[in-house]
Design goal:
alpha+beta; 7 strands; about 220 residues; 7-stranded mixed beta sheet; 7 helices; single chain
Length: about 220
């Protein structure tokens, strides 16, 4: 698994590799990488408000999100071209706090899931600015299930290839729901499940063939033993 991202069971590993290895032809990709890197160099982490203003919001702007604050730590996201249609949330972990914390009052994963449910969204973003995560409320264990991108490592290492994975996941089009109520993340999830089922079916078939081969050996000499 790459140091730049990790998949905590949100998608099947094979499916995740297949979709993240697809080349992105967006002409703004390289410009977005450089823009975000420049914002990071001058970002102010002295307070949550400054961190959001000088870095989190500029990253969202660069990716094409529209946004407005719902509370000190919560941003409502919408397509940049249509501010009347909120589509997701971004919960920002305060500077200096551990994004993995599960203590009462600082269980950040619980906070993004709770707010997503409150606003009737299924997919959302949790970030401390360094790590960026995608969460889905419909998982059996939603607090522990996510995809995480280490944007800080990507920027520090000038890892343009890894940035494509960040750019792939964190774009407005993945959250926008169509007429049937589904967004691209829903489609990714369905395709991921089908990939897992296909692999499991083939594995079971292989095991059954092996069992039959052992029960009915074709070598006539084996019958004499």
């Amino acid at each position: 698994m790459s140091r730049s991202y990790r998949n905590e069971y949100l998608f099947s590993e094979i499916y995740l590799e297949s979709i993240t290895q697809q080349p992105i032809t967006d002409e703004n990709l390289r410009a977005s990488f450089q823009t975000i890197k420049e914002w990071r160099e001058f970002a102010d982490k002295t307070s949550l408000e400054q961190w959001i203003t000088t870095y989190i919001e500029p990253v969202l702007d660069t990716l094409g999100f529209g946004h407005h604050k719902d509370s000190e730590e919560l941003l409502v996201l919408f397509p940049d071209v249509d501010k009347s249609q909120p589509m997701s949330l971004c919960y920002v972990v305060p500077p200096g706090e551990d994004i993995n914390c599960t203590l009462k009052g600082k269980h950040w994963a619980e906070k993004i899931i709770r707010n997503l449910r409150k606003h009737n969204f299924q997919w959302g973003i949790l970030t401390d600015g360094l790590y960026w995560r995608i969460y889905h409320t419909k998982e059996p264990t939603p607090y522990e299930t996510y995809v995480e991108i280490n944007l800080e490592t990507i920027l520090n290492n000038q890892d343009y290839a890894a940035f494509q994975i960040f750019y792939f996941f964190f774009r407005p089009g993945n959250f926008t729901r169509g007429e049937n109520g589904e967004c691209k993340f829903d489609i990714y999830k369905e395709e991921s499940a089908k990939t897992t089922e296909y692999i499991e079916e083939n594995l079971r078939a292989t095991i059954e063939r092996e069992k039959k081969r052992r029960r009915c050996p074709t070598n006539p000499l084996s019958r004499l033993s």
